[in-house]
Each structure stands twice: as structure tokens, then as C-alpha cells.
Amino acid sequence: MIGISKYLWPLLGLVATVQSAALVKVLYDRDRLIKSGEEIVLPVKPVDPRDIFRGEYVILGYDLSSIRQPGPAPEIANLSRGSTVYVRLGKGADGNWTVSGVSADAPKLSPDERVLKGQVINVWSAQDKRDVVLNVRYGIESYFVPEGTGRVLEEKVRDHKIEAIVAVGGDGEAALKGLVIDGERHVDPPLL
Question: Residue 135 — very low, low, confident or very high, per pLDDT cuts 50/70/90?
Fold first, then answer.
């Protein structure tokens, strides 16, 4: 009994230190991405806006969350649920970022392209295999809001008056940095 208690407290202290270090690492990585990632602004579209268990937040949908590829698309059709996918973005003449390519591996980018790393939710193809649709989650779909402000933001999302400010790392990791609401920029304070 004495031998167990001799190691119990140091072992519990070690476990607590490792768990704390893992939590700090997650927060540090997210904060570093938000501070140093290249910023892009994406238009959002409304998605089911309420969840009674997770508090008040707004779910943001993006055009690049559902990617339709006409014709045979083996690079997409071979992906499966849970796969990592890299979505290349190019800036159009209207200033909006749109999908310029999809691949299972990290692509080489031209200077005017960016890449988002996502996880495949599902892949759907028509019976004639003419169209393939890939649904992707990037981790930038939820935006927590102060109590009582969610409904107002939902209406603005429906009216297309909101854009998302996204920090993008060189490896494609993305973090939601803030929103542009009615042309006014609202950036969340840094985590650390």
C-alpha cells in the first residue's frame, strides 16, 4: 500500500501535465493559425441554424462545401466518407474565391491559388456517372455568438449579408477568424 501511494501522486501529476499540455497545444495551434494564416473571405449561405444542446451558434454553409464535378471525376469518385481532401481555390473576377480543383493529395499551388483541407462527408454520383457531388467539412462551419444575437445573424445569413473571414495555413488548415456583417468587419479576439 505504501509503494502504491508513493507513485500515485507523481503519476497523477504527470497525467494532469500531459493532458494540460495537449489542451494548450490545441489552443496554441489554433491561435497561431488565426494570427499568421493568410486571410480569405468567403460568402456564406444558411443551413439549419439551431441546436438546443450546444448553445447559441450559427451554422455557416459555403458554396465550396458541396462540390459538383460534371463528367467522370475519378479523383473525386475514389474518395470515401472520412477521407482527407484538398480543395484548391482561385479568386474570380468578382473577387470571390471559387473551387478550381479537388485532390486527395496536397496540390502544388500557383501564386493566386489557396487550398483548404477538409474531410469528406459523403460522395454522391448519379446512376449514369455523369455528375459526382462531394460534400466536404472544413471545420469552419460553426460560429458561436453572444446570447440573444443568433436570430439576427441567421436572418442576415439568409439575406446573404454575411461573409466569413477565414485564416488559411500553408497546409490547408483553416480557422474561422470572424465575420463581415453588412460590410462591417467583426474579428474575434485572439485565443491567447
Answer: very high
